[in-house]
């Protein structure tokens, strides 16, 4: 349970930092690339074993880390485009609704059983995500813009499902820190190639504030992933229940942080979503 709470806490910290990006005019893509490198360095600092590149490349989880590195930054970029074209609420809903992907795979791959009450709780949680996240007008105005919310949905779902699969079958308990570090380095590698490509096309202007933003994001980002994998390893709940609790709790905490620190206002629709989310949490942990 402590790993679940810590993962939710660090995800809430990420929410605060990303919200501050807009206030300080920080380029999110540049900051994210720096953040991945910082998260990699943080992971190295906390490792109690030496790194041998040849041995890492022979680990069963290494190819999974490469995949996750690509999906991490691709999903973020799709989220950014979704926010710009369709609104932040559409991006948030698409990301959190993706919990249905690891839930489905949990039932299929790990033979997890969902009772009637839990199924109702999960369904209510998905509805609650929509109502709680819908803080602004956001809609898919053109058919071509439907692509980006779909990419966010599948990208976020792939991340959660892949982490669960790798943790279950390939990542030993004593290598979670190493796995997290290598995954962030893979994400950084993909990101730096993207930055170089955009620089050559004249679409990037570098700024010191972007580096500072990335540094601030890197530390909590590393621990958000580390404790997520530790949470999955602990097996306090079945993965379907765990991902539901995790995602809906992040939505709730992020909403309350927005109200307390960013003076965000909630509508009746948001308040209904919060109440529904709390009831859904009760049902899935019943």
- Order of H and E elements: HHHHHHHHHHHH
Poorly predicted tracts of residues:
none
**Strand-residue fraction?**
under 5%
Count up the domains.
Answer: 1
Structural class: mainly alpha
Counting copies of identical and different chains, the oligomeric state is single chain
From the N-terminal CA to the C-terminal CA, the straight-line distance is 15 Å
Commentary on this structure:
The chain is mostly helical and 286 residues long. It is 78% helix and 0% strand. It has twelve helices and no strands. The mean pLDDT is 86.
Q: What would the keywords be for this entry?
A:
286 residues, mainly alpha
Question: Could you outline the blueprint of secondary structure elements for this entry?
Answer:
Elements: H1 2-23, H2 28-46, H3 53-57, H4 62-86, H5 88-97, H6 100-109, H7 116-133, H8 147-169, H9 176-200, H10 208-234, H11 239-261, H12 268-284
Helix pairs in contact: 1-10, 1-11, 2-4, 2-9, 2-10, 4-5, 4-8, 4-9, 5-7, 5-8, 6-8, 6-11, 7-11, 7-12, 9-10, 11-12
Short structural description:
Pfam families: EamA. This protein is mainly alpha-helical and 286 residues long.
């Amino acid at each position: 349970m402590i790993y679940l709470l810590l993962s939710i806490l660090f995800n809430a910290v990420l929410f605060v930092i990303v919200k501050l990006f807009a206030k300080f005019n920080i380029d999110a893509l540049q900051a994210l690339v720096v953040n991945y490198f910082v998260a990699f360095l943080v992971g190295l600092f906390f490792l109690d074993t030496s790194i041998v590149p040849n041995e890492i490349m022979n680990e069963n989880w290494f190819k999974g880390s490469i995949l996750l590195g690509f999906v991490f930054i691709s999903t973020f970029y799709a989220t950014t485009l979704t926010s710009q074209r369709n609104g932040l609420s559409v991006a948030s809903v698409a990301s959190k609704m993706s919990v249905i992907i690891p839930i489905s795979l949990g039932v299929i791959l790990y033979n997890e059983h969902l009772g009637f009450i839990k199924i109702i709780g999960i369904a209510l949680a998905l509805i609650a995500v929509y109502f709680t996240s819908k803080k602004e007008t956001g809609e898919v105005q053109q058919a071509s813009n439907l692509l980006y919310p779909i990419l966010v949905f599948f990208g976020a779902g792939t991340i959660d499902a892949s982490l669960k699969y790798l943790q279950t079958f390939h990542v030993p308990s004593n290598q979670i820190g190493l796995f997290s570090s290598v995954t962030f380095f893979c994400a950084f590698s993909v990101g730096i190639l993207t930055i170089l490509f955009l620089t050559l096309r004249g679409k990037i202007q570098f700024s010191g504030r972007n580096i500072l933003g990335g540094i601030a994001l890197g530390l909590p980002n590393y621990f958000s992933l580390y404790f997520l994998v530790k949470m999955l390893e602990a097996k306090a709940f079945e993965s379907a229940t765990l991902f539901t609790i995790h995602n809906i709790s992040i939505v709730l905490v992020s909403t309350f942080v927005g109200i307390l620190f960013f003076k965000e206002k909630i509508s009746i629709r948001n308040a209904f979503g919060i109440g529904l989310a709390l009831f859904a949490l009760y049902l899935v942990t019943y």
